[in-house]
Specification:
Number of helices: 7
Number of strands: 6
Shape: elongated
Helix content: 40-55%
Order of helices and strands: HHHEEEHEHEEHH
Largest sheet: 6 strands, antiparallel
Low-confidence stretches: 41-53
Distance between the termini: 57 Å
Strand content: 15-25%
Radius of gyration: 25 Å
């Protein structure tokens, strides 16, 4: 913008005496700046695209390499590390449904947590076409129309920003709740799409 303004300032005195030249110079300046900007953006786009592809592939690789012979604590810690490494999640809690409530079997900070089982609420979540929910995306997801307030309250009460339901048929046997990302960053559509693709691995890890 400053460069274009400078060129405009230089040729402005010739606008009336050489109108055609004035128009050509301005046009070529704008065209040149546009081309330069596009050339500079390409490497960054390539880096961003490469990072996205690496994120999904590397996260999948880490799930594949999980040690299912490890102790429960060590196994859950490995899953915790996967989420922190690739999603920037500083902490998570894994819950299992014992029939009357969800009780934590793992928490990043070794806290014991429980969530009362609200069958109607979870049945409504099961009626959507996903098992993955992010608090900041609730209002924009048409599949959650009518239960936005309940979901937001759920996230507030559980102090979480992301929820992965572990389901078997029409039963929620567990869930993984994710804290807000490092530095207050929000989960995004790419995170959601990646977890959707990797859900089979997450399910197996949760079933373990």
């Amino acid at each position: 913008g400053m460069f274009c303004g400078f060129i405009f300032y230089l040729v402005m005195p010739y606008r009336e005496s050489f109108p055609l030249l004035f128009i050509v110079v301005i046009f070529l300046t704008i065209l040149g700046v546009t081309i330069i900007v596009q050339l500079l953006e390409k490497p960054f786009r390539r880096i961003e695209s490469g990072f996205s592809q690496t994120f999904e592939k590397e996260m999948e690789k880490d799930f594949v390499n999980l040690d299912y012979d490890a102790s429960l604590r060590k196994f859950c810690r490995a899953v915790d590390t996967i989420f922190e490494t690739h999603l920037g999640t500083p902490g998570l809690t894994v819950y299992l449904n014992n029939g009357t409530e969800f009780k934590s079997i793992y928490n990043s900070y070794d806290r014991i947590k429980t969530i009362q089982t609200d069958k109607n609420f979870f049945n409504r979540l099961l009626s959507t076409n996903t098992n993955i929910f992010f608090r900041n995306m609730v209002q924009s997801d048409h599949n959650l129309y009518g239960i936005e307030k309940e979901i937001d309250e759920f996230f507030a009460e559980t102090e979480s920003e992301g929820c992965i339901l572990l389901t078997e048929g029409h039963r929620v046997f567990g869930m993984i709740l994710l804290e807000q990302k490092h530095l207050g960053n929000e989960y995004n559509s790419y995170d959601h799409a990646t977890l959707e693709k990797l859900y089979p691995y997450i399910f197996v890890a949760g079933y373990y």
